[in-house]
Amino acid sequence: MQINTLLSTRLLTSIGLLLCGWTWSLQSNSQTPGYPHQPIKLVSPIPAGGAPDLIARIMAAKLSELSSQNVVVENRVGSNGYIAADYVARSPADGYTLLVCMDSTFSINPYLYSKAIVDVNRDLVPIASLGANQFILSANPNLGLKSFADFIELAKHANPPLAYASAGNGSQHHLIMELLKARSGIELLHVPYKGGSPATTATVGGEVAVMFAGTSNANLLKSGKLKALASTGVRRSKAFLDVPTLNETYSDFEATIWIGLFGPSQLPQPVVNQLRSLVSQALKSNDVVENLFKSGGIEPLLMSQDEFKTLIAQDQKKYSKIIGQLHLKLE
After folding, report:
1. Arithmetic mean of pLDDT, 49-76
2. What is the pTM of this model?
């Protein structure tokens, strides 16, 4: 009797331990108990007002509400996003210092800069995609262009070539226009500026003819200070449904701008999973969707972590090819 009781006790204990272990395993694979239990910092690589900063602030407000923790935005500007990326990469891998970053830091910088203070592919882990946008081929209205076809016709016969503005050598504005030149067979003169804002000012002022402007310039485009000719997305921008995409003329021409959330490379997967759950809830909320759209037609970008990694790899392949063709290299 005592032996049977002892065996039963041991059996129940073993089952209890197995159940505890199974429960712990489920928790560790889905979430970290108690996370988050302190304020979270979202680091933006650009000044206030740009797309990554706008998304960071919209998400910070919603994540604060969902997590019951204060989520703040800190701007660390410089080196085309590398200052912010390096800061986050060197931060503790605990989920309390994260990077809200534009795609160019991952898809362009590693192939453009001969020296880098951080290896983004090695030192940072993609957590979640946040939002997507697209560029609008935008012209000075004094050119009198009515359509994208008008622009191509003008550019083919312009002597000297029309000038276009970019946010700098190796910027997406620059590389996408070079892709368009290659597909259309036109010649254009590249005039790099120190950022998207001065490039936009130059195009509005007539210093240059055209540029690829972000839809954050929606007010200028809708007021007629810039003429929208075409967009770079897979489908037409919801903010500019009357503007055709470039892939309506040139098949497979696509250049989507995305913003994502990243953390230090050693960030535990349970923390990643918890963050992804919070981000997913935020991006599905009506107020976030509305605020993103008001911030220049930004659309929520929901995909799995593996799909996000694939997107990064695809963009790296696309932009590394054109950077190599142009023999671009920056210090």
Report:
1. 94
2. 0.82
